[in-house]
Amino acid sequence: MRKCKAFIIGGSAGSLEVLLKVLPNVRTDIPFPIIIVVHRKHGTDSLLPALLSTRTELKVKEVDEKEEIKAGTVYVAPSDYHLLIEQNETFSLDYSEKINYSRPAIDATFQTAAEVYNTKLACLLLSGSNSDGVNGLKCVKSWGGTTLIQDPDSAQVAYMPAQAQLNVAIDQVLMIEDIAEFINLLS
Amino acid sequence: MEVSVITDEHVEILLSDLLEQYGYDFTGYSRASIKRRISRIYALDRALSFAEFRYMILNDQVYFKRFVEQITVNVTEMFRDPSFFRKLREEVLPKLGTYPLIRIWLAGCSTGEEAYSISIILKELNLLHKSLIYATDLNPTVLEKASQSMFAISQMQQYSENYILSGGTKDFSSYYTASYSLAKFDDELKRRIVFSTHNLVSDHSFNEFQLILCRNVLIYFNRDLQHNVLDLFDNSLDELGYLALGSKETVEFSRISKRYKRLPGEKIWRKVG
Ligand SMILES: C[S@@+](CC[C@H](N)C(=O)[O-])C[C@H]1O[C@@H](n2cnc3c(N)ncnc32)[C@H](O)[C@@H]1O
Q1: What's the CATH code of the domain at A43?
Q2: Looking at the structure, do residues B236 and B132 belong to the same domain, yes or no?
Q3: Is residue B168 lining ligand 1, measured as CB closer than 6 Å?
Q4: ipTM, 2 dp
Q5: In this predicted model, what pLDDT tens digit does every residue of B257-268 receive, in sequence order?
Q6: What is the pTM of this model?
Q7: Is B77 part of any domain?
């Protein structure tokens, strides 16, 4: 990948522990944003950004609608809205139907990001028990972006990354301990 | 939905068609959602080509209606965000209860679930008889559905939980009669609701209100349009009236923000200046 403009991580059951292991090792001067979309219960909003920010010096915040996307920031999708990326590199929120029983749906963020960042996007799918994110990764691939999954054998719930591996051309399968290093090497 | 065949240019073409041919102005809407909606209906209806799709929208009134219905998002719930409804019940509506007539504008009411939720609270506070709820939406089809006061019975367990979390103490099922897969809500609840079309982009203020609610509509608008719509609300709200928005929406950063004071914890502001 030439130059990364956004790194997006999607996860469901079993992904939190991965995030908590990875974030402390991500360098604090990354020249792109990290956007996190994980399935969680509605109404527990501020907890996740607070938890993640105990593990990194990077600024971690829950997305505000229409917010400009900035490098060096970790954004967390709010619960119960889909998180979409606009062509002018701002976020918008959408309260449409759940996709794969999920809102936020990883697919919605991956797909809209793919159309904005094309080849300058990397998307990583972590542990999870449904197939959200698989169509999104397809879309990322077809726009020339980089597709990544957590090694299904290392996942608490292998289904999600395994489905991706079955259905999408994956550029790289990452072990948990290699994820931060991979992010750090992108520029 | 995988790779979209609808391009950004297609979206712009269709939005200008809607404006020129029908006077519906969606040009101030955030594009990512609109594009997803258009791609979705394009795929659902198995359009053969963009040219055919565009032709249908321009020339077939029935299809045009369907198109507008489908590109806006109509998802809604009863007592969504229970803590918000608790605040209405415990603080906002009792305050307004001192007025001889409480005028409420519910903008972007979709299929009516919010309107009936508010009606239930007003009834329990003994204020329904002196309240009027103007429930408006751009889309006549959702209003038609709203006025039937029938919702899927499969939702009732969730709504009942939301109702209790919002401070409701009655048996929620006492408000409706079950018939097959539907729950028909009591007519009494809609006696004080007026459903009518109103387009926030192009229509003007039509009354003065003590409470305006517009939740999960502004997220679909760009910043400029959001500011215009907030001005419209400001012009339609009494001094000391309340403005309520969706859980991710705000009056901060807008032209009206200085005159509005937020109630702690909820997306409700009081007009104080
Ligand atoms: C996601 S629903 C919100 C329903 C409800 N307020 C809630 O929060 O559950 C958005 C509604 O806004 C309506 N809407 C979109 N654009 C509008 C406009 N310009 N004027 C009036 N209503 C509009 C749509 O038709 C839809 O019913």
Answers
A1: 3.40.50.180
A2: yes
A3: no
A4: 0.93
A5: 999 999 999 999
A6: 0.95
A7: no
